[in-house]
Write a structure and sequence with these properties.
Elements: H1 2-7, H2 15-40, H3 45-57, H4 67-92, H5 102-122, E1 126-128, E2 131-133, H6 138-141
Antiparallel strand pairs: 1-2
Length: 142
């Protein structure tokens, strides 16, 4: 930057070149100011209190870091292993599960759990820049 300014003394560079350079700098500074203004809101206590109140006003949202949500995910882990083993085994050896058998009801339970998990995921707040966003469409955006 110094070398450009030292080369751009009156009479050496045109005013148009100097204006183009200064305009670019002003646009960068303005963009930085907008970003920092939004980041500083995270440290404003009044803003965060209003945010917390609006989050609490929305019902049926789950915190992704809560113990209940973590247990929910841990319960799903054995279901993944069952599916990972049972489905290829049944397809590979052409095994049909009779309706009403134990395996049938295990499959129904797992399917219902996965369907419920989709609903739970859409009702889980999404973390974004150190805050939780409690909107139903937030998981779609991520």
């Amino acid at each position: 930057m110094e070398s450009w300014l030292s080369a751009c003394v009156p009479g050496v560079c045109s005013s148009q070149e100097l204006w183009t350079y200064v305009r670019a700098l002003v646009l960068v500074i303005h963009a930085m100011h907008e970003l920092w203004e939004k980041a500083l809101l995270l440290y404003d206590e009044e803003y965060m209190e209003q945010w917390d109140a609006s989050v609490k006003a929305r019902c049926c949202f789950f915190n992704p870091n809560s113990p209940g949500r973590q247990v929910w995910d841990l319960i799903m882990l054995p279901f993944f292993f069952i599916i990972a083993i049972a489905v290829p085994y049944r397809i590979g050896f052409d095994i049909d599960v009779p309706v009403g058998s134990f395996g049938f009801w295990v499959d129904v339970l797992i399917d219902l759990y996965f369907a419920t998990d989709i609903f739970v995921n859409f009702r889980t707040a999404c973390p974004c820049h150190l805050i939780l966003i409690p909107w139903p469409c937030a998981p779609i955006a991520h």
